[in-house]
Amino acid sequence: MTAALPRLLTWLALLVAAVAVAVPANAATTEQEVQTSWRLLDYIAVDYREAVSGGRVINQLEYDEMIEFSSSVSSRLAALPQGEQKAQLIDEARALEAVIAAKVEPTDVAGRAKAIADRLLAAYPVPLAPDRAPDVARGAALYAENCASCHGAKGEGPEPAFAKLDPPPIAFADRERARDRSVFSLYQVITQGLEETAMQSYASLPEQDRWALAFHTGTLAYSDAAAGEQIWKSEPAVRALVPDLAALIALTPAELESRIGAAKAAAVTAFLRANPDAVTQQAGGANASLQFARDRLRESLAAYTSGDRSEANRLALSAYLDGFEPVEGVLAVRDGRLMANVEQAMAGFRLAMGRGESEAQMRERLAEVEGLLDEAELALAPEAESSVATFLGAFAILLREGLEALLVVIAMIAFLRRAERPDALRYVHAGWVAALVAGAATWLLATYVLSISGKNRELTEGIGAIVAALVLLSVGVWMHGKAQADEWRRYIAEKMQGALSRGSAWFLFGLAFIVVYREVFETILFYAALWTADNGGVLLAGALTAVILLTVIAWAMLKLSRTLPIATFFRYSAILIAVLAVVLIGKGVGALQEAGTIPITPVPAVPRIDMIGLLPTAQAVGAQLLMIAALVFGFRSAARPRVTATQAE
Fold this sequence. Notes:
Blueprint: H1 4-47, E1 52-53, E2 56-57, H2 60-78, H3 86-101, H4 106-123, H5 136-146, H6 148-151, H7 160-163, H8 175-178, H9 183-192, H10 207-219, H11 225-234, H12 236-241, H13 245-250, H14 253-260, H15 262-274, H16 277-280, H17 286-305, H18 309-334, H19 336-355, H20 359-379, H21 387-418, H22 425-449, H23 454-481, H24 485-496, H25 502-530, H26 536-563, H27 566-594, H28 618-639, H29 645-648
Antiparallel strand pairs: 1-2
Helix pairs in contact: 1-2, 1-4, 1-9, 2-3, 3-4, 5-10, 9-10, 10-15, 11-15, 14-15, 17-18, 17-20, 18-19, 18-25, 19-20, 21-25, 21-26, 21-27, 22-25, 23-25, 23-27, 23-28, 27-28
């Protein structure tokens, strides 16, 4: 008995090992059978019309292929593991065999084949999409290397030497055939090849390369990507039809045609297959955008652990600018506290890399950020959206940004009126009107022509805020100096009775333009993030309400400025502009930190108060303190009595 025990244990170990190998092998076989069956059904749906028309065979070779493929589908389905849908799938597959044998019309066969294919994937799920958008440029290179010799450099069809193959390689540029081909079907053929043809399997290629090759191949019949981009960016209803990569990969151009028409479908297909990342980065795709952030952070950690600190920092910054920042505006409206926490955690992740924290510490930080991103995903879910939140968000954003610009412009207008220089008002009005026009042009460009990257958005906001703050510093000091009646009368006598210089006129124009454009630009970003096809009316109602309130505030401020004593008017105006300068310098430094151009040194003891530009970083707080010091020095210097030449004598 004792001698037999080792032998028994050996046999048991071998049995366990055999089972361990057999289970994954069976799972892999099932997946392969499902994929092959799906591919055959897709092939039947597309190519049956080449075999039969009007109840008679028009191509005997194609028809024989349809008979063979439909029989193979039935056999493969019968070999699948038991499931609730298996019996129905087999019955439908045999019915498909019967209608093909009866030479029914192609539309009937195509409908049956697609229905079986859809039910097959529902009953036996297999991977339908890559985990990230493929590199289509890589796909083009792979096509030139592996496919062009048979299918033509541009998918136009085989060279004469290959045209004699039975069947000949297909022409991918053939629009009529391509309209029924999904990217998934192309991927399946690339992966498994095509039985009884010269099309070999490219399963040896990495999965991401096969997806890239499938996407490029899918573009060869469609070329109007520019028109497709314009449709995609301007029509939310079209974007709603393709919410993610899985939907794009499964969608055939013919199915899209039935929703939006042939011309639009062809253009949108051309754009999306050439630019699949547009789906993951579309404004309404919050989940995809947050997933992009997660992917970039994981890639960043991988680069960090491999020793490539520069690449790790670039990827971590991209996670924020290209992944989280596009949905930041919507999240700020729904949960401002969570938005600030995510932003702070992502900045902390980058700072930790700069400090050289250990891999274990970085993984803890990554887990923290991913947990916050999960919370953000729940907050951004469609069911979490409410009309009240959209209205209040649109109202609050425009009121906040509008007030900052309005206070400066009204102060300039009131000053010129008190100085009895109505001729100079046109420069102020020209400045803020030009800013609105430039803002509209920015929106049109960002919507229809080009995409403004996250970094460029932050740079524009940051530089605009800092320039405006520095200009307001000089204006505030100047106004404080005129807060005494004697100073005001002396200024009128010396300056305002003369002609307005060209430099002064452009100063008025430039100040109005910079202050207003910066606020318009930021408002555009928030509204673009908030806008969806379903909430447009509510968003516009919130914006209109804010405009009405801003108009009332402007009227009240102008009326009040006429009745205030001149010294009081200048004193209040100077204080108001000084406060705005402090707010804007903090916001400007914060935006440049988010763009990665200014380092971040956290100061946990400082609270984050976005309304006044207060951020918990040493750089932002330091900039505001420096601005306050400059204002105090400037105010004191400007308040000193001026000694004239007569007094000196």
